[in-house]
Design goal:
CATH topology of the largest domain: formyl-coa transferase, domain 3
Order of helices and strands: HEEHHHHEHHEEHH
Radius of gyration: 25 Å
CATH architecture of the largest domain: 2-Layer Sandwich
Number of domains: 3
Shape: elongated
Structural class: alpha+beta
Number of helices: 9
């Protein structure tokens, strides 16, 4: 098998075929099929029911050892289908999947909006800045974004004064000397 642990998840040649994006004719679809039930369903989906009883694919470890065969079969099955077609079939077989969205699509995703994962805060000049929302939702303290992050160096004078005891004159001198 060789390679690093990271290659197992991200390597193009050696990566996990059970947890990765695959190319469709109009984009990519991320697919996860780690459990035996998901593997059995995937065998039916790609038209390889014989793989269910094939000793090369008997369990996750043997499937991992023969991942290049699985990856090639999945590539062949998906390459001429649209992302929507792939999602529909995999959803019907209860195999976790999702179309990989570009940033402009992601920023308009209705699911992210419904979960409050798309937020906006107001900048100094009044325009809105889009930001990711709070990912952890707790009932008693759901969290919210109230202000924007500081601009680079915005709080330098406060920090240098509070923690280093520098005066405004010190800061001017250091700035003129190119230190800060």
């Amino acid at each position: 098998m060789g390679g690093t642990f990271e290659d197992l998840f991200t390597g193009e040649e050696g990566g996990l075929p059970f947890w990765r994006p695959y190319k469709a004719k109009d984009g990519y679809v991320a697919v996860v099929f780690l459990t035996d039930r998901q593997w059995q369903a995937m065998c039916d989906v790609i038209g390889k029911p014989g793989y269910k009883d094939d000793p090369r694919f008997a369990n996750l470890i043997t499937r991992l050892k023969n991942r290049h065969l699985i990856r090639d079969e999945l590539n062949a099955w998906m390459e001429n289908k649209s992302a929507a077609e792939i999602e529909k079939v995999l959803d019907e077989h209860r195999i976790p999947c999702g179309r990989v969205l570009g940033s402009s699509e992601l920023n308009r995703d209705i699911n992210l909006e419904a979960r409050g994962m798309l937020a906006e805060v107001e900048a100094e000049d009044g325009h809105k800045i889009p930001l990711p929302g709070i990912p952890i939702k707790l009932s008693a303290s759901p969290g919210q974004l109230k202000t924007r992050g500081p601009n680079v160096g915005e709080h330098n004078a406060d920090i240098y004064g509070k923690y280093l005891g520098l005066t405004e004159d010190d800061l001017k001198r250091l700035k003129n000397e190119g230190v800060i």
